[in-house]
Design goal:
The complex is a heterodimer. By secondary structure, chain A is α+β, with helices and mostly antiparallel strands. Helices cover about 15% and strands about 35% of the residues of chain A. In chain A, the strands form three sheets. In chain A, strands 1, 2, 3, 4, 5, 6, 7 and 8 form an eight-stranded mixed beta sheet that branches. Chain A is elongated, with a radius of gyration of 29 Å. Chain B contains one helix and four strands, in the order H-E-E-E-E. The termini of chain B are far apart. At the A-B interface, helix 1 of A face helix 1, strand 2 and strand 4 of B.
Chain lengths: ~325, ~160
């Protein structure tokens, strides 16, 4: 360690070249490892977001399907006074909610679970344009918990044998010596919009939902889950009364429309099958979506883009629904 | 001699560079691991909830399939809950527990449209089947289903009953 300055000459050219070559190999290797790690991280993130959105969307929709046609303590819509009938859309003069989707739409208890096939034709306009080729799912039921009477809220007073719809906050008395209680009426119409509130080119699952705002009933439009690109519904019908599903039909089938001549009396909806196609928000390098998406009754073809997609499906048992 | 001196000069730099690279990779690996752990927990929670949910559903089905004799309960609605434990494939590890009760609710007129002629001979006995299920990590599911069965009318028909 006692060398003079003259002994410490610089590197020779060969030494420099060799060290540079080795150094650059090392750095290239490290960078490759880094970029690959990062790509894995990003694709994991994207996949996780897509899975979460799909799970969340299903979790929101599922209880509404499962509870449809639950009217407090009874599941017979025909014993509920004030429900819409084909002859009279509003038999007990209930307040029509702002943004209503059709005559008596909110209290059409007969159609406790229904849908629209591959299009949006509700009488209330969607906030963002609805997605083409996607179904609309409408569910109606009473809340699980009893509710305090609230003016402007569509509610149901029901016992084991009958019930009454009301919205003025004055609980009607059913009488008959059977225990009765008050429940909120829950109405939801799920549909897919072409954009989300935040991103113009990102489709989202939205819903029309019955609420009360400032003492008056309102049908509000809100975003449920971004990323849902298409929704398909099919209903499992029991047409012969043996409590097992005989066939699956699309929401526009004559078999589930009591007003259609093709309707078979006594047909019950036993199950609902739902498909959700969920998409990542941004295109991703290395992803090539060349799958052909065919589910429900749509054939969306091959997208041929670089979005990560996930198709989820669930079959849900309806305990209460009948037609 | 010169080469020895050079090696000594360069040893520090290699260590530092190596440490920096290693640190970057460690940070990436740890954040990836954290994400994976969270995802796993999410998936597990969903699975445990599904276990509890299905256990409660099966509890309801079990209650509905009990023989009639077990439905004809006292008007006070006191029943002994039934407990069932589902186990994993190994036959030991518990997956979910469900406790089911059938509680008498009330008697009511028969509502079936084709039963009008027997209105005075029969009555509907209403029950609630209640199932409380529990699975790992505090996942719970509570299901309740009302049902009735039609029985010959009793002398006390129509008397109000506490729910």
């Amino acid at each position: 360690m006692h060398k003079s300055a003259t002994q410490q000459a610089g590197l020779s050219l060969v030494e420099l070249l060799v060290s540079l070559a080795i150094g650059s190999f090392l750095i290239i290797g490290a960078l490759t490892v880094y970029t690959q790690n990062r790509a894995t991280y990003i694709s994991n993130e994207q996949l996780a977001r897509v899975q979460e959105n799909a799970q969340f969307a299903l979790d929101v929709i599922e209880p509404h399907i499962r509870l449809s046609s639950y009217w407090g303590q009874t599941s017979r819509w025909g014993d509920i006074a004030g429900a819409r009938t084909d002859a009279d859309p509003n038999p007990s003069g209930l307040i029509t909610p702002a943004g209503n989707c059709g005559p008596g739409w909110a209290w059409d208890l007969e159609r406790s679970v229904e849908g629209e096939n591959n299009g949006y034709t509700l009488g209330c306009a969607p906030t963002h344009p609805a997605q083409n080729n996607s179904d609309v799912l409408i569910t109606r039921h009473a809340s699980v918990d009893t509710a305090a009477p609230t003016p402007g809220r569509l509610q149901i007073r029901s016992s084991r044998v009958n019930g009454v719809l009301f919205d003025d906050g004055n609980e009607p008395v059913l009488g008959g010596g059977i225990a009765e209680a008050t429940f909120d009426v829950s109405v939801n119409a799920f549909y897919v919009a072409q954009r989300s509130d935040l991103f113009p080119n990102y489709p989202s699952l939205r819903r029309k939902v019955l609420r009360d705002v400032g003492g008056a009933p309102v049908i509000e439009d809100e975003e449920v889950a971004p990323g849902v690109e298409n929704m398909q519904i099919q209903f499992g019908l029991d047409t012969d009364g043996d409590n097992s599903v005989d066939r699956y039909v699309d929401p526009d089938s004559a078999l589930i429309d009591p007003a259609d001549p093709g309707f078979i009396a006594g047909t019950r909806v036993l199950t609902a099958r739902i498909w959700l196609l969920v998409r990542a928000q941004a295109q991703e390098t290395g992803v090539a979506d060349n799958r052909n998406f065919t589910f429900g009754d749509v054939d969306l073809g091959v997208f041929n883009d670089r979005f990560r997609r996930l198709l989820v499906s669930k079959t849900i048992l309806l305990h209460n629904a009948r037609l | 001699m010169r080469s020895v001196a050079l090696r000594k000069n360069q040893s520090g730099a290699a260590l530092v560079v190596g440490m920096i690279l290693l640190m970057v990779l460690t940070v990436l690996a740890i954040s990836g691991m954290n994400t994976a752990t969270t995802e796993l927990a999410l998936a597990q929670n969903a699975q445990y909830f599904e276990s509890a949910f299905q256990a409660a559903e099966s509890g309801i089905e079990e209650a509905l399939s009990r023989p009639d004799t077990e439905w004809d309960l006292t008007a006070a609605g006191v029943t002994i809950p039934r407990r069932a434990v589902a186990v994993a494939k190994d036959g030991v590890t518990p997956v979910s527990t469900v406790e089911t009760t059938v509680v008498f609710q009330t008697t009511a007129p028969v509502l079936e449209t084709d039963a009008t002629t027997s209105m005075n001979t029969f009555e509907a006995l209403h029950y609630d089947a209640r199932a409380d299920a529990e699975a790992t990590r505090g996942a719970t599911s509570r299901h309740r289903q009302g049902f009735y069965h039609i029985a010959p009318r009793s002398p006390t028909f129509g008397a109000p009953t506490a729910p």
